[in-house]
Known about the structure:
The protein is mostly helical. The chain is 38% helix and 0% strand.
Amino acid sequence: LPSTLPSTTTTNSRMISSKISTPTTPQNRRHHSNNKVLRVPQSFIVPSGKILPNGQANPYPQQTWNYPLGIKCTAVRQKQLYIKNHVERIQKLQELGFQLKIGNRTLGWLNIVWASAIYSKIHGKKALDVPQYFVVPSPPSCDEYNDEGECVVVKGRSKLQNDYLEEEEEWPWPEQLWGFPLGQRLKDVRLKGSHLKSSKSASARRAQLDALGFVWNPKRGRRKRSLGGNP
């Protein structure tokens, strides 16, 4: 799948967010129940026109009018359209109450691949060799400011943390991954074959890690620890 969604999918995401955040609309009451399960009938098409047949204003943006939302939602659920191997999209849909046919173990694997890809991008190394103790960090908070209200650089912090606090860089780790024990998860993959025991998915998953440069047999010896997401 491409890294970016087609324009219809971007529209779809905006439309869903609009629907969920507008609880007074009849569409929202029908499709979003009190237990936060998002149900969209397969036949549902986003209504067009500024005024709905019941006289209320149409809450859907004009660019989404006549969009076959029901059919698209069915394809997402049954065929993983737009979401296959994209854990961040799966997480967002689940937050909306969208029910998917994806098990926890599959989601756990997607988190490993997602976090590994970000780690590799941050460190810019061809080899993916994550220390066992590494846990995905949340953004640091500034505990010291100068007279102009600017955050003071702290020597004990990593460059990544200081760049973030100085507002030079955005925090690269998405909130869904904060606290994720990536190092331990990859160790389990390496030593226990975790997530690789299914004959149907093992080869494909190994290929995913190989593409990231995963080190299956790391060198022995102690490593230097560092703060945050920059070991």
